[in-house]
Structures are given as structure tokens and as C-alpha cells.
């Protein structure tokens, strides 16, 4: 729940822009936030899912390269921001205002710093501090949105300012709680030159970084493709439905992430029965969350999946538009993708809990390559519905891979001796 509150900001603002500022502003905001989160995912180097391994399960068990890993994240953030600016200047996308580009830089820097600290709290299972930080994140976001919105109106630039306000507010809450600085939790850099240490950190990060870069493309390429093929109003419609889908499916994905520590503990202890219990718990919980998400998606978009379009128990974001019969071709793929998330959410936890980061990197690289190519082709043929159908098809494919294929790939889950603890091989490659 704590991570949901922190991640929900861009999607909630997307819905707000659709309702308050109209389709064109919603399309612009969708592109800007997708570009920002794309850079954040690139700079993350895939460490968000790997922080429990990198930090260890408790203070004092972090891998020795961690300080260099954190430095590399900031370097990649700056480099990817410069690359985006160069591509925008070259006309790859519609013109980007200098102020928006500067705000993107501030957002990426603050978000990269924030996710590293969230990862440490998550690894140490300090969920109370995560929840408190998420609450302050929401307070900061709303304060900036109300203040700047009252002065300059609800514009995409104000939306970026609000997102930055949320990041800085949560960092401030962490500083007040005494967990902003690393302190003794972060081991000193190993001896040697920076270049040698950077190579060692890169070797440790390689599987995670490949998976992270592929995830950045997989999760955020739709906005870039849409900006090339669709007009701004249609992009706003697609982006708002996408935001509603991500909001309502996020609890399902977070249910999968939450069981990672238990999966890893069961695997290291050599207890396949406990592994099955944990997975069954997720499927039951995820199933209930998926049903709730489908109902929430229908309410938010104002469409009754069992009958005619229109509000189904509450006000829609834009009654007669998001959920109208005219947009059914775009609505249904998002709606059906919500229950599919039950299987997809298990992919990363299953791979990482068994030390199969390299194999996950290969699967993620294939998915990251296929999505923009198939998405561009589908959009050229079917318009925005092609993007939505492409998302549904790829998510369903990953769910089948996770639930059907992975159990055959992981014989260790059925009783093979567990691998040594990651902390006991801190100097070995992952």
C-alpha cells in the first residue's frame, strides 16, 4: 500500500487533466510523464526489484559494490536526460518547452534518489516508514498542485511541479525520520580506482540493468509511439484509460512484489511446500484485488461491462466519453488486462528469488524489443486500439510464461538444495 501511494501520483494527475483540462492537455501530460518515468526506469538500472539482494535483509549485509551502484544510477539519470533532450531537439517528438525539460531533469534526479531510499526501507521491511513517506508524498503533491494550479491554472507544467513536490516532500519526511543519509548501512567503496570499481559494479548490475532498460521500454514506449502516430486528443484518451488501468491493476502487481521476501526465504530454506503456499496466497489475494480493480476501472471510466455504456455506481471521469460505445474498442483490452496481471506480477519475484536474474534479463530484453515494434505496427494498422490490444497480448503472454513455463524451468522449487545466501557470496557475481 505504501508503494501504491507513492507511485499513483502520475496516474491520478492524468485522470485529473482529462477531466479538468481536456483531452489535448491530457495527451501532453501523458507524454511528459511517460518520458519522465522512462528516464527514471533507465536510471534505476533494474535495482528496484533487486534492492533486497543488494542491501541484504538487514543493516550491515549490503554488497560491497552498493555505493558505486548508487553513483551509477545518478550518472545514468543525467546521461539519459541529455539523450532525451538531444532527441527532442532533433525533432524526434513534438517540441518540448525548455521549462518542461528542466522540470523533467529535477523530477528524474529527485525520483532516482527517492527510489534508492525506498529500496533500502523495503529491503529492511520498514513498512511503517514507507507508509509515512507515501503519506507525505501525497501531501506535498497536493499542496503544490493546489498552490501552483491556483496561480497558473491546471497545465502539464504545473502537473510536473506537483510530482516534484511529492518527491521532495517524501525525501523531507525521510530526512526528519533520520533515514535520508545512508550512514553505516552503506559499506565503504572497495579499494581501487573509480573506473575499476565502476566495472565491477556494472558486472554485478548487468542482469538487472538489462531487465530494467527493457522494462523502461516495455512500460513507457506506448506514449512515444502514440506521440508519433496519434493526434494529441486521441493520445489523451489513450493515456487516461492507460492511467485508469495502471491504477486499478497496481495492487495486483504490488501483491506479487510483496511476496518476494517470503519466496526467497522459502527457496533458501529448501521448502517447496512453503513456496506453493506463498504463491497460492498471492493468487487468492491477487484474484480478489483483480475483481476489485475491474469494478473500479468500470466506475472510473463510466462503462458497465455487462450492459450499456454509462456510469456504473459512481461518476465517471468523463461520462459518455471514456466509457462510451465509441471507445469500446479501446476500453475492453485494458479491462481484460487487469486479471491477467495476477500471473504477470509473479515473473520478477520468481526469477529473483531463485537467483535467475540473467534469465529474467533475456526474457525482459525480448519483451522490450517486441513491444515497441509490435506496438508501432498495430498502431499503424488499428490506431490507438492497436496499442491497447498489443498491451493485452503481451501481458497475457507473460502470464502464461510465468504460470505454465517457469515451474518447469525451476526444478529447485521442487526440492533441490537451496543456493547459499546472497550475503554469504557478497564478492561473487550475481
Question: What can be said about this structure in brief?
Answer:
The chain is mostly helical and 430 residues long. It contains 16 helices and no strands. The chain crosses the membrane at residues 69-90, 135-164, 329-352.
Fold and architecture overview:
This protein has 430 residues and is an all-alpha fold. It has two domains: 1-205, no CATH class; 230-416, no CATH class. Helices cover 75% and strands 0% of the residues. Keywords: Membrane, Transmembrane, Transmembrane helix. The chain crosses the membrane at residues 69-90, 135-164, 329-352.
Task: Provide key terms for this protein.
430 residues; 2 domains; transmembrane helix; transmembrane; 16 helices; O-antigen flippase Wzx; mainly alpha; globular
The helix content, as a percent range, equals over 70%
Provide the residue-averaged pLDDT.
80
**CA-based shape:** globular
Query: Strand percentage, roughly?
Result: under 5%
Structural class: mainly alpha
Q: What's the end-to-end separation, in Å? A: 29 Å
Estimate nothing, just give the exact number of structural domains: 2
Amino acid at each position: 500500500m505504501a508503494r501504491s501511494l507513492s507511485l499513483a501520483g502520475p496516474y491520478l494527475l492524468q485522470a485529473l487533466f482529462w477531466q479538468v483540462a481536456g483531452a489535448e492537455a491530457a495527451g501532453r501530460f501523458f507524454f511528459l510523464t511517460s518520458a519522465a518515468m522512462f528516464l527514471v526506469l533507465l536510471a534505476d538500472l533494474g535495482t528496484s526489484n533487486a534492492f533486497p539482494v543488494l542491501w541484504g535483509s538487514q543493516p550491515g549485509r549490503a554488497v560491497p559494490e552498493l555505493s558505486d551502484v548508487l553513483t551509477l544510477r545518478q550518472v545514468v539519470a543525467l546521461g539519459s536526460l541529455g539523450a532525451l533532450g538531444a532527441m527532442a531537439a532533433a525533432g524526434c517528438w513534438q517540441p518540448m518547452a525548455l521549462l518542461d525539460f528542466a522540470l523533467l531533469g529535477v523530477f528524474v534526479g529527485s525520483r532516482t534518489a527517492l527510489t534508492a531510499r525506498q529500496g533500502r526501507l523495503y529491503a529492511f521491511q520498514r513498512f511503517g516508514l514507507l507508509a509515512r513517506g507515501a503519506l507525505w508524498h501525497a501531501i506535498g503533491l497536493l499542496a503544490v498542485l493546489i498552490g501552483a494550479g491556483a496561480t497558473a491554472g491546471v497545465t502539464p507544467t504545473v502537473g510536473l511541479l506537483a510530482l516534484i513536490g511529492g518527491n521532495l516532500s517524501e525525501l523531507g519526511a525521510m530526512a526528519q525520520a533520520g533515514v535520508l543519509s545512508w550512514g553505516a548501512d552503506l559499506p565503504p567503496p572497495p579499494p581501487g580506482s573509480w573506473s575499476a570499481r565502476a566495472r565491477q559494479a556494472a558486472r554485478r548490475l548487468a542482469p538487472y540493468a538489462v531487465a530494467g532498460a527493457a522494462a523502461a521500454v516495455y512500460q513507457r514506449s506506448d506514449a512515444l509511439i502514440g506521440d508519433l502516430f496519434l493526434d494529441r486528443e486521441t493520445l489523451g484518451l489513450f493515456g487516461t484509460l492507460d492511467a485508469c488501468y495502471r491504477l486499478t491493476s497496481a495492487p495486483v502487481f504490488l501483491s506479487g512484489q510483496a511476496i518476494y521476501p517470503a519466496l526467497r526465504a522459502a527457496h533458501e530454506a529448501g521448502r517447496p511446500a512453503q513456496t506453493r503456499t506463498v504463491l497460492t496466497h498471492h493468487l487468492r489475494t491477487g484474484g480478489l484485488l483483480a475483481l476489485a480493480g475491474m469494478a473500479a476501472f468500470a466506475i472510473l471510466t463510466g462503462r458497465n461491462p455487462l450492459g450499456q455504456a454509462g456510469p456504473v455506481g459512481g461518476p465517471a471521469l468523463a461520462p459518455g466519453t471514456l466509457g462510451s460505445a465509441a471507445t469500446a474498442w479501446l476500453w475492453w483490452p485494458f479491462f481484460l488486462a487487469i486479471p491477467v496481471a495476477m500471473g504477470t506480477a509473479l515473473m520478477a519475484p520468481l526469477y529473483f528469488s531463485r537467483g535467475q536474474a540473467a534469465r529474467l534479463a533475456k526474457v525482459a530484453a525480448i519483451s522490450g524489443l517486441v513491444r515497441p515494434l509490435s506496438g508501432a505496427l498495430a498502431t499503424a494498422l488499428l490506431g490507438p486500439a492497436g496499442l491497447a490490444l498489443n498491451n493485452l497480448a503481451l501481458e497475457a503472454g507473460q502470464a502464461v510464461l510465468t504460470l505454465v513455463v517457469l515451474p518447469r524451468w525451476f526444478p529447485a522449487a521442487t526440492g533441490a538444495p537451496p543456493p547459499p545466501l546472497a550475503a554469504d557470496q557478497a564478492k561473487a557475481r550475481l
